[in-house]
């Protein structure tokens, strides 16, 4: 038996802003849970992991050691769409020849948009 990814949990300061960003970015449905203000985002497919946003109260410090990589058919158009939602390009030491674009969400959590499938 092996483990598999079931959920991506992200500590955030503003659950509402982050739920709006990630639900729009990924096409997930937002479902709020409990009195603690956390939110769970459900994907359109059972095969994809859910996202749990929990209030951390504190600001992010340093570069993420774990981040999601997104795939799409038109990377340039998707990057423009994500930037319109509140993402921004960030420099984590890229050379410019990488097969991905590094972005940060509205609370500076890094993620990548891949120019090809990780299996390609």
TrEMBL record:
SUPFAM superfamilies: Glyoxalase/Bleomycin resistance protein/Dihydroxybiphenyl dioxygenase. Residues 4-116 form the VOC domain. PROSITE patterns: VOC. Signal peptide: none annotated. It comes from the Bacteria. This is VOC domain-containing protein.
């Amino acid at each position: 038996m092996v483990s598999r990814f079931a959920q991506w949990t992200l500590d955030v300061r503003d659950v509402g802003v982050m739920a709006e960003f990630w639900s729009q970015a990924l096409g997930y449905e937002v479902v709020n849970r409990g009195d603690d203000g956390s939110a769970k985002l459900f994907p359109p497919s059972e095969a994809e992991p859910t996202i749990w946003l929990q209030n951390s109260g504190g600001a992010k410090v340093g570069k993420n050691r774990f981040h999601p990589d997104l795939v799409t058919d038109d990377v340039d158009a998707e990057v423009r769409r994500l930037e319109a939602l509140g993402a921004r390009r960030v420099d984590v030491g890229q050379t410019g020849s990488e097969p991905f674009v590094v972005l940060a969400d509205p609370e500076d959590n890094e993620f990548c948009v891949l120019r090809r499938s990780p299996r390609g």
